[in-house]
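Hey, resending since the last one bounced:
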Amino acid sequence: MILVTGATGYIGGRLVPRLLEEGHRIRVLVRSRAHAASRPWSGQVEVVVGDVLNARDLSKALEDVDVAYYLIHSMSKGARFGDLDASAARAFGRAARQAGVSRIIYLGGLGEPGAHLSKHLRSRHETGEALREGGVPVTEFRAAVIVGSGSISFEMIRYLVERLPVMVCPKWIYSRIQPIAVDDVLNYLVTSLVVPESAGRIVEIGGRDVTTYRGLILGYAKARGLRRFLLPVPVLTPRLSSYWVHWITPIPAGITGALVEGLRNDVVVTDHLARTLFPHIEPQDYASAIDRVIQDLDAGCIDTSWSDAAGPTPELEARVVLESNRGTIVERRTRRIAAPATEVYRVLTSIGSSRGWYFANWTWRVRGLIDRLLGGAGLRRGRRHPDDLRVGDALDFWRVEDLQADSLLRLRAEMKLPGRAWLQFRLSSTCEGKTNLEQTAVFVPKGLAGLAYWYVLYPVHAWIFDGLATAIARRAEAAAAPPAGFEPATHGLEVPR
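The structure tokens again:
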């Protein structure tokens, strides 16, 4: 039995399916059962809801556990996150010893212990020490920036590159760093289970390249085909830098402050124990890791994100939600439709071509004309069949990317855009025979032009998308309603008065 804490976070959410693939029995300790239930692996694991600072919860979570992964941090809790991290790790270490756990595997941060470490990096080291106080052998991996779609450190860099053609940077852009791909981090975490020599050791892990933050920024810009100019200045303090990063990216100020302060420290591998213990793991170079990130973003394939650990919020129940995360802008609209899912699905899959787009159809024709003028497909392609859709079909200036009977239609935009876009419709039936429609517009902007395109046109898009969702609901309800004057037959039975 393996316990994974932080299972709904960035690393934990990707680690659980990897461990399941290896055939392990998994238990997860989470703060919200509903949040865990939304994961595709939820039915394959044992879920324990609890708090790592609660002794009773820890006792229940650690019962019969052989190895525990500790992937918890408290950066989002404010200035006292270091004290909270140490207290939680100390409690976990004691409970693990009492439960007879044979090993704890922990992912911390790189940084020379003797150096003047930032509060964030110092806390990562102190968390490892607190875990060891319990007496259970700890395998502590230490890594720098993790390169992956959704990784908070890398997302901060990526947002800056995408949004700012010119960056005024403090001297920390010349700090040395050894980034590592998220897939390589997962390889180390999973493989350590079968490398008993790693127990009780601190293992520094990094990718193939040692570079600087300037190298990270320009390397990502090159991979995205963006020209970016960096202007280092000596007067931009970490505090001022954190405010600036907060305004440019969706990362909260409390987290950007801790991250930016840590950028002044060199974070490179100085002990090559990982090569000895894990000789078969060949870490990727930075360029290869970036290529994988871009492929994931282009495909809309993002398994987990730094923001996942925040848990569900009341706004998820709102009729309209607009959010920016993982380099992606998402607008989600919901409707309760008084019609069965089969009828709503029929309306959805009949859209486009000669039937039009149900609302403000003239705006779709104008957009198609503009696309033709720019060399795109426009609306002339129409659709293969007036009623039938298949995955891969062209639908005006969209392409059918996914199709699931009575539950899902996802379209990928093929018009000329400064970025990539999708329009998705998801259906779910209610116990009253009605249907919940979730209409989601997704846009991955490319550079400043992409952001400008989205926000300048958002009032128009919001009007069109709202009207589209309403029109779909009305059409489905009208089709499902009985004809005027219709009365159900009684088959000759007298109706009681």
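Residues 310-318, 489-497 have pLDDT under 50 and may be disordered.

Sorry for the duplicate.
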